[in-house]
Write a structure and sequence with these properties.
The chain is α/β, with parallel strands linked by helices. It contains seven helices and twelve strands. The strands form three sheets. A seven-stranded mixed β-barrel has the order 4-10-9-7-5-11-12. A two-stranded antiparallel ribbon has the order 2-3. Strands 6-8 form a two-stranded parallel ribbon. α1 runs antiparallel to α7 and α3 crosses α5.
Length: 288
Amino acid sequence: MGRILKLTLVTYFVACVSCLQYKVVDLTHNHGKDSIYWPTHSGYERYIDHRGLYEGTDIWVASNTIKTTEHLGTHLDAPQHFNKFSWTTHQIPIENLVGPGVIVNVKSKVVSNADYMVTKADLEAWEDQYGKIPDGSIVIMNSGWHDRYPNKTLVFNTSNPNDTTSFHFPSWGKDAVSWLIAHRSIHVLGVDVPSLDYGQSVDFPVHILISKENIPGLENVGYLDKIPESGTIISCAAMKIVDGSGSPVRVFALIPKFSDSNSAMKYHFSLFVLLCSLVSFKMLNDDF
């Protein structure tokens, strides 16, 4: 009898998983010689170790060595990047690198002000439309700047991309981030520009604020117009670099494939049955 029940639960499990469909959207720019990096850092180099047949066999083998700054292209800033007492890259809990996606759209604001900084009012406007920012969220500014990537002149918005004093691009405002830290509980703060502080910043208050709170940052996030501003799950798959100050990262969003109330009800019912199946299966294993 126990075996029949187990087989029935497994069948329910498979059926429920099939209902939990989602679309995967890549939010990561290519990592290579054209990737954007802060001009005071080193860039990217790739060396071919082997490319061809392996030691007289007909087996094709390719292997490369890469040299790169941790802070290149779409990447994660570890909290220790601006606070020596905070987490290094390998110390960030994996559960802190995934969460509900909160995309704060300020594209209309940056049209007339390249130095725009996201405000508390922008966050309140998001909450007025979508509800309270969920705990554990990945909160990312969408300024539309990702469309300029990887043109350094356009991304840094200057005729001299090697002169940091000439940079003009939007980012987060100190007051908005202070409010997030004080009144919400987020996992990651992100931008589609090269820095979590706006281009003309010289004291980097946003970097300092989130680093002190052990909140990682994302920079140069791409393709944000391909996902909704609410309702996704975003993952930041950073390398687990020992004592790292950051890491190249593959950022992607999961979008549930339901668009109406009936589909949503079916989705959540499937989640409920799936959880019940898992609990029942565990209880059966304990009993038999």
